[in-house]
């Protein structure tokens, strides 16, 4: 089981890197604008995606300008700020409300999301959407079910890709 999971996980991460290469670059450029300017990088993670928030705010390689985002904080944000959102579903009502408030305040944002419903469209107000291509668990069981659904792990992979790209961009400004 572990070998199957590891093989499938490697395939998933490779697929993300290959399919989302341009979007990762676009997202990193957008988020970096806050770090080279007068803005802050706000992070919001919902449910299991708080793993991204924890890494961004408390991890060993955190960005000093990173702050947690709450709905009540949105009115104080400016167009110099940037927001990284992470949610298990792009059509989550709470997430959609947050995105609409960011849009109203002209705050650019990037969304990392999974969705069991592959037909769910990305919210139009999001500047860059990084969808996670994970619809079910990675390991088949004897009963035909699938287990091992590493959505937060895939989101952390995307976050680390963004972080590395952002560090490259910031190095060019120094």
From TrEMBL:
Instruction: Spell out the InterPro entries in the cross-references.
Output: DUF2529, SIS_dom_sf
Annotated organism of origin: Halalkalibacter oceani
Q: Which UniProt keywords apply?
A: Coiled coil
Task: Set out the biological process GO terms recorded for this chain's protein.
Answer: carbohydrate derivative metabolic process
* Coiled-coil ranges from the UniProt annotation: 2-34
Q: Which GO terms describe its molecular function?
A: carbohydrate derivative binding
> What is the name of this protein?
DUF2529 domain-containing protein
DUF2529 domain location is: 1-170
């Amino acid at each position: 089981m572990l070998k199957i999971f590891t093989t499938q996980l490697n395939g998933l991460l490779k697929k993300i890197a290959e399919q989302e290469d341009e979007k990762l670059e676009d997202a990193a450029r957008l988020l970096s604008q806050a770090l080279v300017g007068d803005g802050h990088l706000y992070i919001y993670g919902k449910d299991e995606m708080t793993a991204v928030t924890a890494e961004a705010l408390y991890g060993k390689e955190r960005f000093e300008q990173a702050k947690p985002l709450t709905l009540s904080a949105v009115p104080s944000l400016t167009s110099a700020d940037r927001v990284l959102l992470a949610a298990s579903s792009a059509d989550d009502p709470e997430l959609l409300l947050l995105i609409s408030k960011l849009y109203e305040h002209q705050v650019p944002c990037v969304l990392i999301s999974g969705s069991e419903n592959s037909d769910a469209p990305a919210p139009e107000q999001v500047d860059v959407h990084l969808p996670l291509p994970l619809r079910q668990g990675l390991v088949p069981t004897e009963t035909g079910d699938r287990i091992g659904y590493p959505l937060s792990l895939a989101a952390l992979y995307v976050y680390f890709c963004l972080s590395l790209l952002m560090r490259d961009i910031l190095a060019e400004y120094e």
